[in-house]
């Protein structure tokens, strides 16, 4: 579950309505850096992705409502109660059913988006077998992680109906902290191979950049992304001793050392501003707000739904809780992504200050947009609601301002 930040949702939605475009007014026109063909290709690619995103949203909401109003959730909960004496196991059985139906219904959309479309645009290096293998591995991991949350939450709902929301927030905070700590070393290697960066000169330059920012750099790893995609990227992840910068091998292969350093300086910026820790804290606050919404709105919704129960602690309410969490996340996306874009701008500014190289920064943004078919100037609604990063034109403008 992506953490929700409801406290900022109203302001972000106002921005969504009032904005006229995805970029700042001072941004350069896209034709200054891109051809009409590149712009058209990127917009078509993004339009396809956005269309499928809206379809997925609609299908997901409709599925949860159907599970509720057709009586499917109620009948399965009753069946589980008649066959399984253990309450946690009944919750687990109902969760697995909802998860399996949700995964199966959304499978065609996911397959078309991440396999068919990616192949159409020449981005994917996946064979069908490898794609299916990763899909089933990812689904299995999501099932296990989700089941832990579901069983834990319903156990608290049953045993502590008054304070479950507070205890649940604390438990969730611990769960996410452990997950962030262990994901880089336990989960990520299931899908990709990570090796220490072999270029000693580049690693020395990275260490020097980090030292300049007052940061002791952790591991710098190269991921074998080229086995799956031609997209280029880098990211930082982990807590404590598992903290690391991960660079796609496509980034190292397709870009100059100065461009790679510009990208890594951006990741150092995330460390400098402690974005992962801030995001963690805000995510826990968002979770608390969602639990409070479930506590006060969920019981009232039960009176209008054929779930055969008057308590949220019944496994029959799993689709209802999924629907509430899904709706909260969707409504708060503008706020979540506004905060994410703020973090990304801070990291961009750090990259410019550390490298002192606005020209390379701009070159890198242009190359990334071309390689990834990113719309340089996305529509305002899509930008404010779904984009986690500033638009390419915004980032280019930042580089131009630094150069001046």
Please provide a written account of the structure.
- The protein has one domain.
- Strand 3 and strand 4 form a beta hairpin.
- The protein has a four-stranded mixed sheet, sandwiched between helices.
- It starts with 8 loop residues before the first helix and ends with a helix.
- Helix 2 packs antiparallel against helix 4, helix 2 runs antiparallel to helix 11 and helix 9 packs across helix 12.
- 31% of the residues are buried.
- The protein has 14 helices and four strands.
- Helix content is 71%, strand content 4%.
Structure summary:
Helix content is 71%, strand content 4%. It is mainly alpha-helical.
Keywords:
single chain, 404 residues, mainly alpha, four-stranded mixed β-sheet, 14 helices, 4 strands, 4% strand, disordered N terminus
Order of helices and strands: HHHHHHEHEEEHHHHHHH
Largest sheet: 4 strands, mixed
Shape designation: globular
DSSP helical segment count: 14
Residue runs with pLDDT of under 50 for 5 or more positions = 1-25
Q: How is the largest sheet built, in terms of strand order?
A: 1-2-4-3
By secondary-structure content and strand pairing, the structural class works out as mainly alpha
End-to-end Cα distance, whole Å, is 42 Å
Number of strand segments: 4
The average pLDDT value, as a whole number, equals: 89
Number of domains: 1
DSSP strand content: under 5%
Helix content: over 70%
Radius of gyration: 23 Å
- Quaternary structure classification: single chain
């Amino acid at each position: 579950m992506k953490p929700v930040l409801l406290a900022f949702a109203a302001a972000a939605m106002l921005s969504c309505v009032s904005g006229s475009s995805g970029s700042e007014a001072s941004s350069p026109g896209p034709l200054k850096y891109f051809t009409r063909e590149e712009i058209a290709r990127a917009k078509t690619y993004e339009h396809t992705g956005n269309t499928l995103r809206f379809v997925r949203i609609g299908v997901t909401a409709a599925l949860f409502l159907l599970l509720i109003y057709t009586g499917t959730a109620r009948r399965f909960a009753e069946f589980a109660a008649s066959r399984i004496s253990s309450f946690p196991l009944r919750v687990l059985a109902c969760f697995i059913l909802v998860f399996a139906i949700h995964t199966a219904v959304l499978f065609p959309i996911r397959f078309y988006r991440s396999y068919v479309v990616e192949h159409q645009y020449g981005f994917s290096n996946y064979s069908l077998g490898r794609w299916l293998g990763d899909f089933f591995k990812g689904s299995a991991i999501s099932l296990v992680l989700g089941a832990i949350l579901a069983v834990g939450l319903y156990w608290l709902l049953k045993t502590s109906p008054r304070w479950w929301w507070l205890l649940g927030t604390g438990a969730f905070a611990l769960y996410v902290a452990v997950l962030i700590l262990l994901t880089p070393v336990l989960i990520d290697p299931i899908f990709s191979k990570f090796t220490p960066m072999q270029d000693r000169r580049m690693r020395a330059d990275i260490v020097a950049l980090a030292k300049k920012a007052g940061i002791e750099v952790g591991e710098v790893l190269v991921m074998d992304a080229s086995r799956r995609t031609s997209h280029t990227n880098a990211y930082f992840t982990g807590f404590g001793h598992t903290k690391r910068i991960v660079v796609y091998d496509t980034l190292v292969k397709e870009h100059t050392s100065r461009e790679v350093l510009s990208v890594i300086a951006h990741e150092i910026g995330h460390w400098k501003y402690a974005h992962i820790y801030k995001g963690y804290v805000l995510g826990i606050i968002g979770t608390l707000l969602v639990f409070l919404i479930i506590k006060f709105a969920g019981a009232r919704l039960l009176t209008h739904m054929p779930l055969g129960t008057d308590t949220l602690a019944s496994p029959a309410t799993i689709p209802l809780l999924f629907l509430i969490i899904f709706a909260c996340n969707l409504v708060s996306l503008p706020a979540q992504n506004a905060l994410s874009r703020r973090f990304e701008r801070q990291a961009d500014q750090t990259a410019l200050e550390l490298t002192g190289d606005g020209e390379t920064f701009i070159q890198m943004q242009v190359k990334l947009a071309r390689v990834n078919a990113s719309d340089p100037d996305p529509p305002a609604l899509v930008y404010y609601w779904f984009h986690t990063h500033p638009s390419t034109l915004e980032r280019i403008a930042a580089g131009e301002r630094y150069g001046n």
